[in-house]
Amino acid sequence: MKSVFKLSSSRMALVAAFGLAIGFTPAQAADLGGDCCADLEERVAELEATTARKGNRKVSLTVSGWVNEAVFMWDDGTERNTYVGTNSLEQSRVKFTGEAQIAPGYSAGYTLEIGIVGHASNKWDQTTPGTGSNDNQLTVRKSNWWLKSKDYGKVTVGLEGTAMYHILDDADGTNTRSFSDAEGAAVAQGAFFLRSGGAFVNNLRWSDVLRGVNNGTDGQDGRRNIVRYDSPTIAGFTVTASWGEDDIWAMALTYANTLGDFKLLGKVGYGQNSDETISACSKLNGQDCELFGAAGTIMHVPTGLYAYGGFAQNHDKTEAKVSGAKATDTMWFIQGGIEQKWLPLGKTTVFGEYRHDDGGSNLDKNFLGDYVHNSSLDFVGAGVVQNIEPAAMDLYVIYRHADGDITNASADTVKLDAFDMVIMGAMLKF
């Protein structure tokens, strides 16, 4: 739910609105003494002083966002604990969007989105639930302007998601999108240390073996300084292309439609990222990453039964030149469930999911020292999301289990201790 402020400094409009709010009638107004007008004027002045204002009346202003806080209970087989903080999968944020019509069918606008990092869950590990330097920060998630045409599409310039941004996540057509999408497992436990036989494995974290340019998930890129184009939607299809920074480009195709009793949503994309300063494809100098991702959701609308799944891979052409390296990382996932409005408060989504990663190599810049030669990881999860329509709120409970093994630089296979986590929280939108 969004809050839209259409602002006016007209004192007469405020007086009229105030009169209606307190139930004035013409007969009542005639009986008022002289002091009432002074009181009314004082109240109007207070309202004017506390009302948000726009600097440019020609451009609309929409303010939206959400707060997402949760309790995380985890067990790595040796230690268990409970942390509380901001759910980094979809962190709390506030978004400002403006738009002005240039001519019929043409408009210009801007997006400014600020992330609010209270106590970030993606910074936690077994030794501490984050550090003070990670807490209570604001981050600029998006800052861009755009031009849009009904017939020709939209061009965006600035900090924005590339065409491969959330290519898997945004193919989730259910209410698990913000709570357990394709990258949910990687975000939840990425910073925790790996254990084998109760001992830490060379101080490696799950994020060291979960490969991917963005949030440890193959096939997805992040928010970059780019030029992006989104085509008009034709027969359910939308084309997106982006380019920017140090030779980052991508293209994607989205399909969204309802055919009979089935609701369909699908995305597929390909891109390249050779900017080693902003990506984690590998630690090599001169990395050259190729990204591919495809995912989709099909839902039977009358019953609410659905399936959501996808496949993605990263390939580093620089890493492929190193003898013995496994330069291609792949992952696939499947989620199934049912989404129905059994309660008058809102829809309930019940789901189960599975994700498998073949992580490939993670070399250091000199091909020396401890590094991951390969990995095989499995994640099994289940959960419930309950929407509360009157409050624009979602309550969620999610359980996830992870295990697997890695192959180290000495070609030894190390079996990892299982990692379990339960997440309970709420997202309140505004």
UniProtKB/TrEMBL annotation:
GO molecular function: porin activity
Signal peptide residue numbers: 1-29
Originating species: Hyphomicrobium facile
Keywords on record: Signal
One GO CC term, this protein: membrane
Keyword Signal: yes
Signal found in the keyword field: yes
Lineage top rank: taxon: Bacteria
The protein's name in its UniProt record: Porin
